[in-house]
Amino acid sequence: MSTVVVVGSVNIDLVAAGGRMPRPGETVMMERFAEIHGGKGGNQAAAAAALGATTHLVGAVGDDDRGRSARADLAARGVHLGGLATVPAPTGVAVILVDDDGENSIAVVAGANAALTPAQVSAALDAIAGPAAVVASLEVPLPAVEAAAAEAHRRGWPMILNPAPARPLPASLVSRCTAVTPNERELTALGGAATLLAAGAGAVVVTRGGAGCEIHTGAGSPVPVPPAPATVVDTTGAGDIFTAALAVALATARPLPDAVRWAAAAGALATEAFGARGSLPTAPAVDARAA
């Protein structure tokens, strides 16, 4: 059994779905609303656990009803929460709009996620016996992500960075990443795959939605990975599930192309229900879809 350590955010998602996205200054009527569990870190941890990995989450929630609910949901999914702190700040919230095509638009208020410290991250990772793969995203403070990458590098563990929301990244962080997993917009904001590879990333795996993925390693042309079939309901969280599945696969020493194909199948399955955790795939389901 593989071990995955997720360093990232825990949010409550406020989701309105239906129709189309509003334009600036416009009000539109949506068809349904739900308050559900989310956050890139929470989604990635829930997905890794569903895929069978021993999963640890390092993050922070508030001392409020949403924080207690988020903690209970993750514990029920089998995620180890020794690294999840409770802090005197409101639990993070994401406001999500989903249109009839399953595309989404997201605004995040960090709340308690902003309290995650490098010392907390280092202590939590130091307590893991290993070996493990480490996953981080950017809805938590950058120094905390840098601490995760430094600890993973020190211990020789795979480090997977989901650079969302995109922001300038120091080369000292990028150079410690086994794989960076931006979508196409994030890749543009980060200066392109060549920039990330020049900064020392082991690989850049670009997710392209219904067009599949591309693997950039600097060794020849990018390698395209075709999309797995899916009946799309909601794309919210699909990138999180892709990244979690990639970490699970790399933790078991799968070659990168095989790991990406497996992750793409997991991401496809994640789009087939409403909400970021509405369709968390199991390993047998991913195997079947990848085939």
UniProtKB/TrEMBL annotation:
Single GO cellular component term: cytosol
Cell location: Cytoplasm
Cofactor binding note: Requires a divalent cation, most likely magnesium in vivo, as an electrophilic catalyst to aid phosphoryl group transfer. It is the chelate of the metal and the nucleotide that is the actual substrate.
One Gene Ontology molecular-function label: ATP binding
UniProt cross-references to Pfam families, sorted A to Z: PfkB
UniProt-annotated binding residues for K(+): 234, 236, 270, 273, 275, 279
Primary residence: cytoplasm
One GO term (biological process): D-ribose catabolic process
Residues that hold ATP according to the record: 183, 207-212, 239-240
Cofactors (names): Mg(2+)
Ranges where the Carbohydrate kinase PfkB domain occurs: 1-282
Superkingdom: Bacteria
Binding site for substrate: 11-13, 39-43, 139, 240
Keywords: ATP-binding, Carbohydrate metabolism, Cytoplasm, Kinase, Magnesium, Metal-binding, Nucleotide-binding, Potassium, Transferase
This protein's pathway: Carbohydrate metabolism; D-ribose degradation; D-ribose 5-phosphate from beta-D-ribopyranose: step 2/2
Record's catalysed reaction(s): D-ribose + ATP = D-ribose 5-phosphate + ADP + H(+)
Keyword Nucleotide-binding assigned: yes
Entry annotation: catalytic residues: 240
Family, per entry: Belongs to the carbohydrate kinase PfkB family. Ribokinase subfamily.
Reported function: Catalyzes the phosphorylation of ribose at O-5 in a reaction requiring ATP and magnesium. The resulting D-ribose-5-phosphate can then be used either for sythesis of nucleotides, histidine, and tryptophan, or as a component of the pentose phosphate pathway.
Alphabetical list of PANTHER family matching this protein: RIBOKINASE (PTHR10584:SF166), SUGAR KINASE (PTHR10584)
Subunit structure: Homodimer.
Protein name according to UniProt: Ribokinase
Organism from which the protein derives: Dactylosporangium sucinum
